[in-house]
Specification:
mainly alpha; 2 domains; 2 helices; 60% helix; 0% strand
Amino acid sequence: MAQSDDHTREFFDWVQKMWTPQAFGLAANPMAGFGAAAAGATAMPGLPGMPGLFTPTADPRELERRIAELQAVETWLRMNVGFIQMTVKTLELQKSALESISRMSGSAQSDPK
């Protein structure tokens, strides 16, 4: 039971680390560049502990970079979906061919000439 508790504690520590702004390479106060009005701002008002990942950026170059990265990921995922669909179709064809051969073999054995 102690080992399970250790794994549970490690998991919760890992999750807690992932939800800190520093885990995403963000400053502790993502609004720091917006002047005195944002001096007391948190990563996401009303949701303490949420990372600054959800805070919109005001830098157009950063937005372009994020869009390009996500488009690359989308392309990669679409390509993988295509490969998976092709693999499924190939396996279905192989199954169909094996069933046909099995039926032909069975009918040849039951119908001697």
